[in-house]
């Protein structure tokens, strides 16, 4: 209110001391800076992962709890700024909060940031389901020609709408879900674009401007009605080492798939068809894997063991968890891997493409290993509510 008084006096030629004048001008400059910051989706203008304070972070991970725990819109969170101060992920704002980490990260998408590009992909986009020849995968990538983020997640219909007050689908609150966001330099999006091509990521919305990486342009064209074909330069090992903006080590994997003419009996050989087997083989460690606990699931067998009970924030469950992650369990010095995947450990997906993004970090690895509890610690699955049958997983 006082600001308005000072401005009025200046305009009418009333006396104003130099000190008052400087104060008014400083406040005007500050107001302009704040307005520009809001339009840019962040005070620094960087496209990348952002925390609840709308500050840039190199990466973050969040775990949304299932609805039957009584707090289905709550997520637990860790990022590069908080992990050294906490040994457990801390519950924060609701998953759909307009000032939460997801909304802050997606602000350039909501605001149609000039000079940026993006690809939203999902086998279960907001209005329909993708054809089965597309990958069982969900994610969002956005970048300008300086940096960007890759947000790999497990939530169907996300983002539901291009608005900060309606981006999270109501159906997404039913089950447990995970999100991993990593800020990468622009050059890395050539590798990410190649990854999306190989997994046949189903693009349901995109905008890749002229002058951006061709790998992204090709990935953006993967949608219904397009002819799918392999990129010419797929890595033989089906994984890529990536470095975040802050040079943190990550690794992306793609899932080996059956030829469409192969016998379905080959699906019984999990060593040929299971994404998590190939991850375990690559990182040189047994893994504990959490995937959708419905349907014809691969049994636990070295080196992949199914997670049968989870406890996060004092809540325990063994069903209604749609997240897909695995954690290395062999303590081998620096080899502490935690991976967030697209695929379930299910025979029904042996012909379906997908992938994973893994972080090499001892703290994250320890947190997720601590989430895993003995089966006896959870109620029997029949005692807990089953997943909605109408939602294809």
Structure report:
With 393 residues, this protein is of the alpha+beta class. It folds into two domains: 2-39, no CATH class; 59-383, no CATH class. Helix content is 21%, strand content 23%. It is built from nine helices and 17 strands. It has helices spanning 2-11, 18-39, 101-105, 107-110, 189-198, 214-220, 270-273, 275-283, 362-371; strands spanning 59-64, 74-79, 90-94, 117-122, 138-143, 147-153, 177-185, 203-207, 239-243, 249-254, 287-290, 304-306, 310-312, 315-317, 325-328, 337-341, 355-360. A hairpin with an 8-residue loop joins β15 (325-328) and β16 (337-341). The chain is globular and about 55 Å long. The protein starts with a helix and ends in a 22-residue tail after the last helix. 45% of the residues are buried. Residues 1-16, 29-42 and 381-393 have low confidence and may be disordered.
């Amino acid at each position: 209110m006082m600001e308005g008084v000072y401005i009025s006096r200046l305009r009418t030629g009333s006396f104003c001391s130099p000190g008052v004048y400087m104060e008014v001008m400083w406040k005007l400059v500050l107001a302009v800076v704040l307005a520009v910051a809001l339009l840019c989706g962040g005070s620094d203008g960087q496209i990348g992962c952002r925390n609840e304070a709308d500050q840039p972070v190199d990466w973050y991970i969040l775990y949304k709890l299932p609805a039957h725990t009584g707090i289905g819109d709550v997520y637990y969170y860790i990022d590069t700024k908080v992990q050294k101060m906490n040994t457990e992920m801390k519950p924060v704002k609701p998953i759909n909060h307009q000032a939460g980490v997801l909304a802050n990260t997606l602000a350039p998408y909501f605001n149609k940031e000039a000079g940026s590009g993006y690809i939203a992909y999902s086998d279960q986009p907001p209005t329909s389901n993708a054809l089965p020849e597309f990958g069982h995968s969900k994610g969002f990538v956005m970048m300008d020609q300086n940096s960007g983020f890759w947000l790999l997640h497990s939530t169907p219909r996300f983002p539901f709408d291009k608005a900060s007050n309606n981006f999270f689908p109501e159906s997404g609150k039913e089950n447990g879900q995970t999100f991993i966001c990593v800020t990468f330099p622009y050059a890395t999006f050539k590798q990410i674009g190649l990854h999306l091509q190989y997994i046949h990521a189903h693009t349901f919305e995109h905008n890749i401007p002229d002058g951006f990486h061709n790998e992204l342009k090709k990935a953006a064209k993967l949608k219904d009605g397009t002819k799918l074909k392999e990129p010419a330069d797929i890595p033989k090992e089906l994984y890529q080492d990536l470095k975040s903006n802050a040079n943190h080590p990550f690794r992306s994997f793609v899932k080996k798939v059956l030829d469409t003419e192969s016998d379905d009996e080959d699906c019984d050989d999990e060593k040929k068809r299971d994404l998590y087997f190939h991850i375990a083989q690559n990182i040189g460690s047994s893994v504990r894997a959490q995937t959708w606990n419905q349907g014809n699931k691969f049994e636990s067998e070295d080196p992949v063991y199914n997670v049968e009970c989870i406890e996060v924030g004092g809540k325990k469950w063994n069903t209604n968890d749609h997240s897909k992650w695995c954690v290395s369990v062999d303590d081998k010095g620096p080899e502490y891997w935690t991976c967030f995947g697209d695929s379930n450990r299910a025979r029904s997906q042996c012909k379906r493409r997908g992938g994973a993004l893994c972080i090499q970090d001892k703290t994250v690895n320890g947190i997720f290993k601590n989430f895993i509890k003995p089966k006896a610690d959870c109620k029997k699955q029949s005692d807990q509510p089953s997943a909605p049958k109408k939602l294809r997983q």
